[in-house]
Structure to design on (228 residues):
């Protein structure tokens, strides 16, 4: 299965600041997916990141709030901008590996 | 868009008993239905999946059934063990070529507790 590394694993942030989460995969993949899991809740797709093109955002998520970069086929970043306590969640990177969606360990953000 | 309902939200069973979790979906075009297990503080991990061209799939103590007409699918765990305790998520998507792959819509999850 894919090896997906996410950084940071957790962070505590102040309201109004921004934080960038990094996702590194051990081999090249076409699409990378960013999910959000709010405390005790299910997983919601934020956006799909393709290398060389703009990310595709799901309903309720906008580029200004969650800018995404995809500079190459093994790396992506998700920025959570102008954070508020409602952004406290686990953010998970995921990739398709052998027709299975595999998740990273997640980045747990707490916004005070 | 797709909507996935999952029941029950919590389930407590005795070790050795069976556990059943049920999901319904709204989009008749959905054709891929995975189940993920998430232990406390860990990432979701795929435990079994089924595609719409089959009605049932088994893997040791785990089985999934799919009723396309009724648009529901279920996870069955037999001979439950304490290590089966976790949150289980069902999901649905339209699996095919192109960018719609793995645009998974997840259910809200079921917290399964297996009591020794």
């Amino acid at each position: 299965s894919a090896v997906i590394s996410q950084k940071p694993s957790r962070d505590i942030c102040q309201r109004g600041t921004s934080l960038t989460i990094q996702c590194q995969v051990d081999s090249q993949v076409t699409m990378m997916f960013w999910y959000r899991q709010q405390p005790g809740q299910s997983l919601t797709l934020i956006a799909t990141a393709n290398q060389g093109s703009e990310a595709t955002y799901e309903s309720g998520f906008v580029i200004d709030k969650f800018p995404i970069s995809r500079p190459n086929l093994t790396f992506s970043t998700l920025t959570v901008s102008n954070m508020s306590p409602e952004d406290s969640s686990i953010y998970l990177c995921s990739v398709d590996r052998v027709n299975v969606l595999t998740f990273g360990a997640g980045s747990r953000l707490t916004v005070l | 868009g797709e909507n996935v309902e999952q029941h029950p939200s919590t389930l407590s069973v005795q070790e050795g008993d069976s556990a059943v979790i049920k999901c319904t979906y709204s989009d008749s075009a959905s054709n891929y239905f995975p189940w993920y297990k998430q232990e406390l503080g860990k990432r979701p991990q795929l435990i079994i999946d089924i595609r719409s061209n089959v009605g049932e799939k088994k893997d040791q103590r785990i089985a999934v059934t799919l009723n396309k007409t009724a648009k529901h699918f279920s996870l069955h765990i037999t001979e439950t063990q304490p290590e089966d305790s976790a949150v289980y998520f069902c999901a649905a998507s339209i699996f095919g070529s192109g960018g719609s792959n793995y645009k998974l819509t997840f259910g809200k999850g079921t917290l399964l507790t297996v009591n020794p």
User: Anything to note?
Assistant: Chain A is about 0% helix and 55% strand.
